[in-house]
Amino acid sequence: MSSAFDRQVRPIYDALDSGSNKPAIIACTKLLKKYPKSTLLMALKALGLVRLQKVEESMMLCDEVLATKTTDDSTLSIMTHVLRGLGRFTDMIAMFDDAFKRQPHNEELGAQTFFANIRTTNWKAAQQVANKMHKQFQEDRYLYWNILAVILQANDSTTPPNMRNLLYKLAHRHVLSSPTPSYLSADRFHLHLIILQELQLFDEAHTLLESEVGKAICSTSLVCNHTRRDIWRLRGLWEEEGERAQRNITERRDRNWLEFLSVLDATFSTVSSPHQQEVTEAVKSECIECISKARQFFTEIAEGDGRKDRSGFLALLELEKRSITNGLVSDQTELLTLMKRYYNTFGDKACCFEDTRPYLELPDDSLSAWTSFLESQTVSYVDVSELQRCINIRKLTRYNLPESQLSPESESTRAVEYLSDYLEGLHLGNSLPVTELQPVDDLAILAGQAFVNSWKTSGDVKYLFSAALVLEFALTKSRLSFPIRLLLVRIYRLLGASSLAIEHYRAMHVKQVQNDTLSHFILSRASTFSSAATGDLTYPTECIEASQIYISNTQETAEFITRAFSAEKYTQIPDFMTFEDRLENSLQRDLVKVEHVRMRISHEHLEPNLIDSELVELKFVFDRVHHDNRDFEILPNYQPRSQPSYNEQTLLFGSSPSYGWLGLFLKVYIRAFQQASDLDESVEEKLLVGDRPIKPSDLEKISLKERLAERKPEEYNELTSDERLFVDWATILGDWLEPYHDHTRPPPAVVLAEAAKQTEKAYPLKGHVTPPVSDSASNGHSKKEEEAPAVKKAPEAVANFFDEMTQRFKSLVESQSPPSEILHVAALTQEAFLVFTMGTLRFRSAPLVKIHKLGALVQMFNEIRTKAICVLRDMQSHLAQVSEGENTVESRKQFLDLPVSSKLDHDFVINIAKKIRESRKKTLEGAGKGMLKICSTYEHA
Amino acid sequence: MSVLRPFKATDLFKFNNINLDVWTETYGLSFYLSYLSRWPDLCCVQEAPSGRMMGYVLGKAEGVSNEWHGHVTALTVAPEYRRLSLARNMMSRLELVSDDLYKGFFVDLYVRCANYVAINMYESFGYSVYRRVREYYGNLGVGKGGRDEEDAFDMRKPLSRDPQRRSVRLNGRDMIVSAHDVS
């Protein structure tokens, strides 16, 4: 190409880079007039189009470029992006395969063919390409690409177990055939090691690892050393490993806990091996000797390190604990002494509680000695060290509190004491900048958690309000404390103060990949609080923003897998693949998706576009094997060990939606969308572009219909009782309506003809020939040969559901239950009405009803609809009443009588009371207004 | 008691307790993956035996000829695990790898001039100020610490390949350069 052409194309690249897709497309169109055969311009235009979601147009150009079988590097590289955007990975392989065949000397094309195969887990084809490249270009790295592809195939869950060993043997042969030794790079060396480990070729591994160069690699490469340690253990070389670790600890001053574990494992290797039969007395006494040696060793380390490093001290604790577990020491005196010593040395460190927690489950006599030791400590607030000791004493004491001391009242008293500690120590952080965390924060968290425990055992909401007050106060002093905010998010959702929950969540500035692990805090069952029906898009927007990370993953992660191959960082590749898979198939991703759908149907018009697109998407979701990446550990937990954790205590409606919840809601919605949609399987096949996601093989055996009908008890366990009612109701409704939908759905040919008309005429659908539409059909509704199914009476449960929900609702309102519970029932009733509306949408067409003689059915629909609307209106008026009662002077004053209020500033208490009350009022009102809107929209449907 | 182990891509699912911190940036996926796909041995994690992450370091190797060196891009420890020598352990691991494996001449890092605690800590590890970079953290604007808040110290520590200590100097605090001279 001429340099003039290059000059003209450059701005198009720039435009695409900066996301100016439209100008890029215009520029392409203009230039294509001058260079109509330029594949590069076509590819660039196709890229712009796919990014603007103009899929059909992009497909056309894409096919044109593919047909030219071009080998032009720039075109091919742009095409990888186009094809990825269209999900056409199979075409990508074919494209590079062709190009590489035409230019077998082009290394880059070979590499791209290899990557395209890796991307689609075509291990075998990838191996062949790597093999070919190794022969052609004589570069060792292609041999290692081949080796890794073999290992990836061996580790693939679809590979039969007997193949695994054969594949590893093949990989081993490849390694040995390499003209250069594997130790030239740590990553090749590691690949070699894991093959030897799998095949248990320990002699070869030993030679490699004990060589000078092997030792050098392990000293700088943590990952190689890790595999070395595993191999040593597999070989049963516990003692050698222990001695080596001792040398590292003393000579190299290595304080990696893994080294200490090696010493500990060596000490107990003779008594704790899983293959050991009966442990003889001789073995026991030998082990006791080892223990005393290890004790001496760790004591020296602990004394030498002093307060600089706590590894020696903790190794002593662990040694004692293991001695007890193995029955080699009978009394706990030594353990207790060590724990006291540990507290005396490191009691002023924040990690003291977490460090000692594994050793705190003491038998009664030791426990009372330990408790009185803690009680004998004097508490002072003169400096941060003393304060930290106080915090540790409170946490350590609390951890072992017996049930008898945990009544709501005593927990409440305790909470107030924690708050007093907090207030006393507060002065220590006076001079800190606002960006710093206060050293007293944990005392406020303790107070908050004790109040939550009071609430959980008594059900009295005043304790939840108290917890909120304490934590809100702590937040005024420690503005950036994320643990405090997370605790508050949980409390506010329980209280139905949804806008405050969102406010705190947003203040944490959750970004990027954190959305996947943290968005459950705000989006789990979020449709309960959404007033999307009124046009308030707060929650739907949050769903979309939290889901951006999945798009980034699809677009970016694969690129780094190929980069890791190019840079020969083989250790990273399996990790990257796991990472990509865990994000792509993230449970949270699809829980958010379902919540979004639930909100979307409440504020968008129920029309074919929405129904069809959600149907297709949810069906993809339904085939995924999900991973749960959600982070629940992030919530601090200082509850006594006899109590459920703070996380468990504060889950909305007492449970966390997981795989089963997702499965059931997907089944309900896929079925509802299927019935409402004109797309049957054959039509969908023709209209969809791109590859289908690979289905797990066991799903192939059961039909979609069967899978949708399946109801497993473990799935039901994740639902609240109200959600169960809803799911059962939807199932009965679906069963009733199915025959009428199946009979009246237009035939595929008609649907396709309509679709072809809709997409611009210039882009005919792939493989579609428009059939002649007969004139006899009226408005596209043709009469079928067989009679319409006889109209059956509506199952009683369909209409009764709304009565049942009214009763549930009223009893909750009367018993002054928390708004979240009231809203849960109201939202599910509204949701049922929307699912019902969707299911009856098709029968709004008068000609259709007339042709199929379904007038009686429509009559029944009208009755149910009237009843549902009546119920919703009634609920709305109650919601309005409840919300009126929220923000009154009286309701705010209640806060002044809370257990904590005397300790806090009067204005502060009133201000928080106002905020909570207002937020609850807004949530209740919003839900009610949404219901009214929906009623009026669908009243005459 | 902390385990020192390599940073893995899947650690991004569990680093919240460290990254929900105003001074620890959470980047896009490509940032972490590009480090791991090039310098995995310069990225490591300290982990509690419970599996909870305590802190991590991300580093790279860069520069030409006698400027070839290891660079600390991010070093962070969760608040509850501070003052336990975790940073020191991670830094000495990074120095070891920069020295033995990458054969670098020195290791360097950037730190806010106002961040006395960190500067003291790095000095105790053997680092010294090589130069002051004006407006390196310009995006935040001049904060409470005035110019010190947005200027950075480029701190360095020579490795075994630089026995003459040519990569450091005594009067580094007075050597002032602008941000575009260093990036």
UniProtKB/TrEMBL annotation, chain A:
| Stored InterPro entries | NAA25_NatB_aux_su, TPR-like_helical_dom_sf
One GO cellular component term of this record is: NatB complex
- So where does this one cross the membrane? none
Known Pfam families for this protein? NatB_MDM20
UniProt-annotated stretches for the region Disordered: 765-790
Which N-terminal stretch is annotated as signal sequence? Answer: none
Instruction: Report the family membership.
Output: Belongs to the MDM20/NAA25 family.
- Alphabetical list of PANTHER family matching this protein: N-ALPHA-ACETYLTRANSFERASE 25, NATB AUXILIARY SUBUNIT, N-TERMINAL ACETYLTRANSFERASE-RELATED
Name assigned to this protein: Actin cytoskeleton organization protein
Source species of the chain:
Serpula lacrymans var. lacrymans (strain S7.3) (Dry rot fungus)
TrEMBL record, chain B:
Q: Where is the N-acetyltransferase domain?
A: 2-160
- Please list the GO terms describing molecular function: protein-N-terminal amino-acid acetyltransferase activity
The alphabetical list of record keywords is:
Acyltransferase, Transferase
One GO cellular component term, please give it. Answer: NatB complex
PANTHER family named among the record's database cross-references: N-ALPHA-ACETYLTRANSFERASE 20
Instruction: Give the classification, highest ranks.
Output: Eukaryota, Fungi, Dikarya, Basidiomycota, Agaricomycotina
Q: Which organism is it from?
A: Serpula lacrymans var. lacrymans (strain S7.3)
Protein name per the record: N-acetyltransferase domain-containing protein
Write down the SUPFAM superfamilies for this protein, in alphabetical order.
Answer: Acyl-CoA N-acyltransferases (Nat)
The yes or no answer to whether the keyword Nuclease is present is no
Respond yes or no to whether keyword Glycosyltransferase is given for this record: no
Q: Which domain of life is it from?
A: Eukaryota
